[in-house]
UniProtKB/TrEMBL annotation:
Coiled coil: none annotated. Residues 92-328 form the DAHP synthetase I/KDSA domain. It comes from Calidithermus terrae. This is Phospho-2-dehydro-3-deoxyheptonate aldolase. Its EC number is 2.5.1.54. It holds the Pfam family DAHP_snth_FXD. The keyword Nuclease does not apply. GO terms for biological process: aromatic amino acid family biosynthetic process. Residues 1-68 form the DAHP synthase ferredoxin-like domain. PANTHER family: PHOSPHO-2-DEHYDRO-3-DEOXYHEPTONATE ALDOLASE.
Length: 345
């Protein structure tokens, strides 16, 4: 349920309601606006008697049952967009971010070269997989711990925060020690033990939509992270599996405005995995920007033809530079801006 406090409620009144929410066995989530304070009471569905109990409290203006199965992700609990920030930029609200880099970390030279040029062209975050979940057990699986160390070195040189994938609950502590954001890939989007494990860290989580997930299922996966106390979650639409075979996946661009009408969480687009071919990456990325995405995560490689994974969809440096130029041209039209990500001198 959502408890709306009376106008002008102070910290003492807020603390009193929070204590009462906890007393009856619910978990409070406070959202303070300029004129109104909302307290979400998260737990099982409230009885009519419990609703009336809270309505009768002097500090309370109204109590509304939360209708969505996802509670903490819902706009009913937090009407204002969540904003997640790093020293290089922010995402959410009117703030837009770009994360870019190779699909997988392959060598020191490769990741440092990629980090330098994505920063030079304005990216605010470096992506790169140290652990790679592959369809075939014979495909490149990543460099593991050594790859994490190389990502740390790239961050130290460029100042770019790092996002990388974590594959299992057992890896969470190790990856969280090295990365600035933990990525949950499409194949793990309903790995509930993993979602709970990253929810217990203090690192932001990038959650990719499973290739066969409905949007409600997607938000319920985010709820697993949020329910463990980690409220910094970014949703990423990366394409879903349909009958179409011309692209690797079908990018559900409509998911962006729809999700933003349901949730306060930032919503990004991953055009690389949807396209499967670099020729389509820029148009799909721009489509995501045009419908209001809060960020994009793009694969780019110093020598894509030599990449050990997803070679066909990784952009050359000059293509990434063109993408960034076009993104900057569109952002003002949709009321967004990039903060940080300044080019190297």
């Amino acid at each position: 349920m959502l408890i709306i406090l009376k106008h002008g409620a102070g910290q003492a009144e807020i603390a009193s309601i929070v204590a009462e929410v906890e007393r009856v066995g619910y978990r409070p989530h406070v959202s303070e606006g300029e004129s109104t304070t909302l307290i979400g009471a998260i737990g099982k569905g409230p009885t009519p008697e419990l609703l009336e109990h809270f309505r009768a409290l002097p500090e309370v203006a109204e109590v509304i049952p939360i209708s969505k199965p996802y509670k903490l992700a819902s706009l009913e609990v937090q009407p204002k967009p969540s904003v997640i920030s790093w020293p290089t930029g922010s995402t959410g609200g009117n703030a837009f971010m770009v994360a870019a880099g190779p699909c997988g970390v392959e060598s020191r030279e490769q990741i440092l070269t990629a980090a330098r040029f994505v920063k030079r062209h304005g990216a605010q975050m470096l992506r790169g997989g140290a652990f790679k979940p592959r369809t075939s057990p014979y495909s490149y699986q990543g460099m593991g711990r050594e790859g994490l160390d190389l990502l740390v070195e790239a961050r130290a040189e460029t100042g770019l925060p790092v996002v990388t994938e974590v594959l299992s609950p057992e890896q969470v502590e190790l990856v969280a020690e090295h990365a600035d954001m933990l990525q949950i890939g499409a194949r793990n989007a309903q790995n509930f033990a993993l979602l709970q494990a990253v929810g217990e860290t203090n690192k932001p989580v990038m959650l990719k939509r499973g290739m066969s997930m409905t949007l409600e299922e997607f938000l319920m996966s985010a709820e697993y992270v949020l329910s463990r106390g980690n409220l910094k979650v970014i949703l990423v639409e990366r394409g879903i599996r349909t009958f179409e075979r011309a692209t690797r996946f079908t990018l559900d661009v409509s998911a962006v405005p729809l999700l933003k009408s349901w949730t306060h969480l930032p919503v990004w687009i991953d055009p690389s995995h949807a396209a499967g071919k670099r020729d389509y990456v820029i148009p799909l990325a721009l489509a995501g920007v045009a419908v209001g995405a809060d960020g994009i995560i793009v694969e780019t490689h110093p020598e894509p033809e030599k990449a050990l994974s997803d070679a066909a969809q990784q952009l050359h440096e000059h293509e990434f530079a063109l993408l960034m130029k076009k993104v900057r041209a569109i952002l003002p039209a949709v009321g967004k801006e990039m903060v940080g990500g300044l080019e190297l001198a």
